[in-house]
Amino acid sequence: MTEVVLFDFGGVVIRTPFELHGYDWRGPFDVASDPLWARSMTGEITEREYWHRQASRYFPDADDPTHEFMRSLYEQDESVVVRPEVVALLDALQAAGLRTAVLTNDLAAFHPPEWIERMSVVRRFDPVIDLSHVGFLKPQPEAFEHALKELGLAREEASSVVFLDDQPRNVAGAVAAGMRGVHFDPTDVPGSVARLLAEAGLTDPGFPA
Q1: How many percent of the chain have pLDDT more than 90?
Q2: Tens digits of per-residue pLDDT, 57-105?
Q3: What stretch of H or E contains 194?
Q4: Nearest in space to 72 (alpha carbons), one of 84, 87, 54, 86
Q5: Measured by CB atoms within 10 angstroms of the end CB, which terminus of the chain is less buried, N or C?
Q6: Structural domains in the chain plus CATH codes
Q7: CA distance 53 to 37
Q8: Using CA atoms, how far apart are residues 130 and 107, in angstroms rounded to an integer?
Q9: Where residue 204 falls among pLDDT bands split at 50, 70, 90?
Q10: pTM score > 0.85 for this model?
């Protein structure tokens, strides 16, 4: 039985940087154009390192190139950066009485506190579990152990959690920890939402795509 849907934040709740600006490197939208992204997908480098390297190309003199890069993309109205499909998904899950929470590697690592504070969508989740400064990241087992503790769940209750992430290796990490996992494919948002609803037992053919 599903009790909690645990969301990744960047790329799932909010659009990817690839969707907010046109680059000659396209990440999951064209892996062949982006060998650095392919390396992050295999775990050779972290996603945080990927964005630091790309950001440094545009803001080489910034104290924090990643923060500056993300600011240049995400300092827009919330309706532009948040996926409307995910807002509708949150409505459906919460109407069904399910708890919604976030497990993210990089929220504070990528965005300043004032940006996080003004994003009303953040308040749709309880808790927001941010691994920016804890010393481990998804897909390490410690990340999912930490999430269960923050959710107030015992390890034996992990199967009551459905985890949604755009990185397949993070989904695999959640499954290894006993959770149920769904891959969120940013190139197929409607399909990803449908898979999540089905896993949560809430398949609804009338759900807005």
Answers
A1: 87
A2: 999 999 999 999 999 999 999 999 999 999 999 999 999 999 999 999 9
A3: helix 189-199
A4: 54
A5: N
A6: 4-15+80-199 (3.40.50.1000), 17-74 (no CATH)
A7: 11
A8: 6
A9: low
A10: yes
